[in-house]
Amino acid sequence: MPEPEPSNIHVLNIIGQIEGHVVLPPQNKTTKYEHIIPQLAAVEQNDSIKGLLVILNTVGGDVEAGLAIAEMIKSLSKPTVSLVLGGGHSIGVPIAVAADYSIIAETATMTIHPIRLTGLVIGVPQTYEYLDKMQDRVVEFVCRNAKISRESFRELMFKTGELARDIGTVLVGQDAVKCGLIDAVGGMALAIEKLNSMIQGRVN
Question: How many domains does the chain divide into?
Answer without folding.
Answer: 1
